[in-house]
Design a protein that fits this description.
The protein is 30% helix and 30% strand. The strands form two sheets. Strands 3-2-1-4-5 form a five-stranded mixed β-sheet, sandwiched between helices. A five-stranded mixed β-sheet has the order 8-7-6-9-10. The termini are far apart. The relative contact order is 0.16.
Length: 214
């Protein structure tokens, strides 16, 4: 079983090749602004390094957000195209769930992505990776209030690539292998039904609604 793992949702470009749920080749590098031209060549290079081709892929796991609108769209589009054209099973996963695989010493982990304007994409997970606060688009104040209704902030570790004032966080140390194993037996999706999960409408859509409501 060869699994292709793709994540283009954050500041990192991650392409992983897994055999029987174990990593055999991974590229994890800082993402630039040319994802659309880099992703397919990177996948091709990874496969060639281990003497495989696209035809050897048995499953695709793609992070479908939340995160960078452009990054999510590029990753999902490439994954869907490969899945449809080669008839490969495809499974979407949450970027926040992936961030939550970071090992911490506290009872809970809160992965977040800075959505600007004092808002986040965030959720809360326990050590068994159970989703305690559903992944959502939320203001900083609302997120902290939600956490405090469940536990003390001392029991929480914030994890993010983003540094935000007044929130002490650590950088992610992803356990992609856990995600690959978890979704090994999950039912695959129709490629046409796999879409970006932004958790928030794009700004252009919001402005259009504002104009209509005036």
């Amino acid at each position: 079983m060869i699994t292709l793992f793709l994540d283009t949702s954050t500041i990192r470009l991650i392409v992983g090749i897994y055999k029987d749920n174990m990593p055999i080749f991974i590229v994890n590098e800082e993402s630039m602004n040319d994802l659309s031209s880099r992703l397919l060549p990177t996948i091709k290079e990874c496969l060639e390094k281990i003497n495989l081709s696209v035809d050897d892929i048995n499953r695709i796991i793609v992070v479908n957000g939340p995160g960078s609108f452009t990054g999510v769209r590029v990753g999902v589009t490439v994954a869907k195209t490969l899945a449809w054209s080669k008839n490969i099973p495809i499974i979407p996963v949450s970027e926040l769930e992936l961030l939550a695989t970071t090992k911490v010493d506290t009872t809970y982990i809160v992965p977040f992505i800075d959505a600007r304007r004092d808002a986040f994409y965030a959720g809360m997970y326990d050590k068994k990776h159970k989703n305690i606060i559903e992944d959502t688009y939320i203001t900083r104040e609302s997120l902290l209030n939600k956490i405090k209704r469940r536990t003390s902030l001392k029991n929480v570790t914030f994890v993010s690539y983003n540094k935000v004032d007044e929130i002490e966080s650590i950088l992610p140390k992803l356990n992609i292998e856990y995600i690959v194993k978890k979704y090994a037996r999950k039912k695959s999706f129709n490629p046409h039904l796999v879409n970006p999960n932004y958790l928030k409408r794009v700004e252009a859509e919001e402005k259009l609604d504002d104009k209509r409501n005036k």
